[in-house]
Amino acid sequence: MPRVHIKTYGCQMNERDTEQVSQMFVERGYTMTATDTDADVVLINTCSVRDQAEQKAIGKMGMVRRRRVPLVTGFMGCMAQSRGSELVEKTKVDLVVGTQKYHRVVDYVDEIIRAKEAKMMDEERFSIVDIEEEQASQNAIRDHSLKENQGSAFVSIMQGCNMKCTFCIVPYTRGSERGRPIADITEEVRRLADKGVKEVTLLGQIVNLYGRHEFPAVDGKSPFVQLLEAVHEVPGIQRIRFTSPHPIGYKKDLIEAFTYLPKLAEHVHLPVQSGSDEILKRMHRPYTAAKFTDLVERIRAARPGIAVTTDVIVGFPGETEEHYLQTRELFDKLKFENAFVFRYSKRRGTPAAEMDDAIQLSEQVKEARNQDLLALVNKHAWTKYEELLGQEVEILCEGTSKTNESRLMGRTRTNKIVIFEGNPDRHIGQIFNVRISHYENFTLYGDVVTKD
């Protein structure tokens, strides 16, 4: 059977989708390969959040095809959804599959291979493009291909987003919100736990608003909190994470969940995007800086020691120096433990891209604000890292370090990376304590704490 390579760009959702497609190939008898050089089928799972991600994907496919032309080439994911047949014309690939058709990829590859073997595909090309919507497609992302001793796994609980932030392409590439049934998700988590998984991360574009259109509240608890409670009861699961939430999804019931669900990890990623009320309004973010500040304070009160990280965009159309300073003031006050700081870039098909060119900021201004805010983030974050020196922290070992294969890597409950010397057979996939000795940038280093 042919060998398949899938290159993934973008978020955890894309990683999870790639895992699902890979498992379906394996079940059909294909062999997955880690590189494209010896693959018969080369697919790229794409991201459209920023133009750079799209260009990387197109560039990668160009490199593959210049080196040699595999039997089947194609794009999946968000860029495939937004560009459709345009990608066939531009890159000469055989297959373009949108975000609601991952479960059909293997069938389409089979069809293309049969056509080529029957010499039905001539030089003028025969291609398959499927970017149509499909009801209940969210339920197809449910299977896993686990590595040996894998301790953590992603679980997709929904697809789509209805928020329509003016800078974001996701509602147009992932469609409207669609949630999976709680029972199905819980059973998937149970199967993972039976295979040794100890930590699950629940995934959704707007994860804490899961199920709001499909499922009722019960005893004042939203569908998402009901799901958290159900997953919390699965034996063997010791940590629960979720990403990426929206501030408006943090209602009273979710904040309270942190007081009585100890398996919820002490970390929330809470995208603020701007500290200026005027810019938030232009972004179509339905909260103010004051309400966001109050939310962070209530979360920290519910679970002392919780780490709060965020996303922010600098240089959004119309952002004045005063607007930026309001963002900087908010960051100085809330002291996030980390932040992804993005320079605004136009995304075709979003409302922000159509805003008056007169209020589009220069790249020099964006870069200056980006560097200034990063320096502030680092100052506050490293204070938290200093506090951990000499302390014992609980980690889940995920595997070898990406930068040094002779060392192992794990994550704390607050989602900080820890590098240490260890035994792969004994430590990978396990939860234990490490004493922190030092840190570099946003990486902690330490030694395994041995029991007497």
TrEMBL record:
<dbReference type="InterPro" id="IPR007197">
    <property type="entry name" value="rSAM"/>
</dbReference>
<dbReference type="InterPro" id="IPR013848">
    <property type="entry name" value="Methylthiotransferase_N"/>
</dbReference>
<dbReference type="InterPro" id="IPR020612">
    <property type="entry name" value="Methylthiotransferase_CS"/>
</dbReference>
<dbReference type="InterPro" id="IPR006638">
    <property type="entry name" value="Elp3/MiaA/NifB-like_rSAM"/>
</dbReference>
<comment type="function">
    <text>Catalyzes the methylthiolation of N6-(dimethylallyl)adenosine (i(6)A), leading to the formation of 2-methylthio-N6-(dimethylallyl)adenosine (ms(2)i(6)A) at position 37 in tRNAs that read codons beginning with uridine.</text>
</comment>
<feature type="binding site">
    <location>
        <position position="11"/>
    </location>
    <ligand>
        <name>[4Fe-4S] cluster 1</name>
    </ligand>
</feature>
<dbReference type="GO" id="GO:0046872">
    <property type="term" value="F:metal ion binding"/>
</dbReference>
<dbReference type="InterPro" id="IPR038135">
    <property type="entry name" value="Methylthiotransferase_N_sf"/>
</dbReference>
<keyword id="KW-0004">4Fe-4S</keyword>
<feature type="binding site">
    <location>
        <position position="47"/>
    </location>
    <ligand>
        <name>[4Fe-4S] cluster 1</name>
    </ligand>
</feature>
<keyword id="KW-0808">Transferase</keyword>
<dbReference type="GO" id="GO:0005829">
    <property type="term" value="C:cytosol"/>
</dbReference>
<feature type="binding site">
    <location>
        <position position="161"/>
    </location>
    <ligand>
        <name>[4Fe-4S] cluster 2</name>
    </ligand>
</feature>
<dbReference type="GO" id="GO:0035597">
    <property type="term" value="F:tRNA-2-methylthio-N(6)-dimethylallyladenosine(37) synthase activity"/>
</dbReference>
<feature type="domain" description="TRAM">
    <location>
        <begin position="386"/>
        <end position="450"/>
    </location>
</feature>
<dbReference type="InterPro" id="IPR058240">
    <property type="entry name" value="rSAM_sf"/>
</dbReference>
<dbReference type="InterPro" id="IPR005839">
    <property type="entry name" value="Methylthiotransferase"/>
</dbReference>
<feature type="domain" description="Radical SAM core">
    <location>
        <begin position="147"/>
        <end position="384"/>
    </location>
</feature>
<keyword id="KW-0963">Cytoplasm</keyword>
<dbReference type="InterPro" id="IPR006463">
    <property type="entry name" value="MiaB_methiolase"/>
</dbReference>
<dbReference type="InterPro" id="IPR023404">
    <property type="entry name" value="rSAM_horseshoe"/>
</dbReference>
<keyword id="KW-0411">Iron-sulfur</keyword>
<comment type="subunit">
    <text>Monomer.</text>
</comment>
<feature type="binding site">
    <location>
        <position position="78"/>
    </location>
    <ligand>
        <name>[4Fe-4S] cluster 1</name>
    </ligand>
</feature>
<feature type="binding site">
    <location>
        <position position="168"/>
    </location>
    <ligand>
        <name>[4Fe-4S] cluster 2</name>
    </ligand>
</feature>
<dbReference type="Pfam" id="PF00919">
    <property type="entry name" value="UPF0004"/>
</dbReference>
<keyword id="KW-0408">Iron</keyword>
<feature type="binding site">
    <location>
        <position position="165"/>
    </location>
    <ligand>
        <name>[4Fe-4S] cluster 2</name>
    </ligand>
</feature>
<comment type="similarity">
    <text>Belongs to the methylthiotransferase family. MiaB subfamily.</text>
</comment>
<protein>
    <recommendedName>
        <fullName>tRNA-2-methylthio-N(6)-dimethylallyladenosine synthase</fullName>
        <ecNumber>2.8.4.3</ecNumber>
    </recommendedName>
</protein>
<dbReference type="GO" id="GO:0051539">
    <property type="term" value="F:4 iron, 4 sulfur cluster binding"/>
</dbReference>
<dbReference type="Pfam" id="PF04055">
    <property type="entry name" value="Radical_SAM"/>
</dbReference>
<keyword id="KW-0819">tRNA processing</keyword>
<keyword id="KW-0949">S-adenosyl-L-methionine</keyword>
<keyword id="KW-0479">Metal-binding</keyword>
<feature type="domain" description="MTTase N-terminal">
    <location>
        <begin position="2"/>
        <end position="114"/>
    </location>
</feature>
<dbReference type="Pfam" id="PF01938">
    <property type="entry name" value="TRAM"/>
</dbReference>
<dbReference type="InterPro" id="IPR002792">
    <property type="entry name" value="TRAM_dom"/>
</dbReference>
